[in-house]
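Much of what follows relies on a compact textual record of a protein's fold. A record is reproduced here so that you can trace the correspondence yourselves:

. . .
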Amino acid sequence: MSEEWQQYIQDTRTQCKYGIKCYQKNPEHHKQYKHPPQLKVKANKKQRNNRFQPYNKIKTSEDVSNSTVKDDQELEKNNDNNIESQPSVSTITENDDEISPKCKDIGSHDIVSYYDKDIDPNILEECFLVEMPPDFYKFYECLNKESEPIEKLLANVNLQLIGPYELFLGKLPILQDKDMYLVHWRFYYDPPEFQAVLKKKGKSEFHIGYYRDDPKEKPVFLARNDSSADCIITPISENIFGAVYWFLQNEKKTSPFVSIACQKMMEKVKNWAEEHKYSLEEFNMKKRVPHTVCRSFHNAGIVVPYNKKTQLGYRKLAESDAKIKKMFKQLSEATSQTEKDKVLSELQPVLTYASIAMDECDFGTGLEAGIALFCSGLKELQTSALRNLEVAYSLLRREAFKKIIQAHMKHRRKGSEMSVLNI
């Protein structure tokens, strides 16, 4: 075995899923992922020119002429096909291989510039359209006081700082298209209300983030979601210290190799929380229920202005959650367009009713319908989901959420590496 292969096997970095076919030139990508030694081997000019020589024939002038005509015809045909297959701006991405033009352009940059980590943190609100709360900054401040590098300290317990936290690490890219920040580390089932700031290292899609009902208000709680499993958003704690403490409690049970590191980190988090007067208690969902108008498909609940006397602001959907979920399942399992059309026709009255409700000032109904369609994850319903959510957020004056859902639906994708630089 060559020395290069031995180094490759011993390398502890995550293996790039594209292997020797990886086209990325971004240095940050190559720092984070390991690639087989073959990527470093370049054939010399002579080898490239002679590679297919054994199969070449001596061409006559007639052969060359015919070949040229065929090549021109083939090139014209390929160009036509490429134009037809170009995804439109409204195309919804269903997997990692289908990349929208804007995303692909970002990922293919040879040189990426990053914000200076000492820049005014107010830039975060400009990028992500929401204001980060005091505990967000305090947690990083506590991490920064440790002698061990922050990323290594968290890697020992299988945690990784993402999204807004990348600013302090000097890893937040400077993007020309500001809308792309709205999909930076935004996972498949993350609604606009949810802003991820932590994830479990590696290929896991488990992540933790702040959840807020209104973009102009402070977060209500920190929650967790695993987009590889479902769309459920589960509240954890009122602050990030409690959320990290909860994660460590559960993570130390998964493997004896991280148990000791988790226990040490738990003690540090506990001391930090006590010092700065943050509670480590889990979020009490029962206190939130009276403020919500419905549970919603992601289970985090929906809060909108609602007058109990006039019952203005929200009304229930035309069908129960159970019936709507059944229709979603039927649609996902449909094997023909006829079967899909049948389910869509059954679902249409629900959407029509929600639209009428918004016309009559029950904005919460439109938001509930949009979230339900979004949580289905079905491409057949994405246009309807976007339409409902755009109208609902506009009527509720939650313009930042409207911008987020527009960007997300344009570049929606599945996977664990949700940085725009990894697309």
Q: What stands out?
A: Confidence is low (pLDDT under 50) at residues 39-72, 74-109. Residues 68 and 74 are 10 Å apart (CA to CA). The chain is about 45% helix and 5% strand. Strands lie at 14-15, 33-34, 159-161, 194-200, 206-211, 221-226, 234-237.
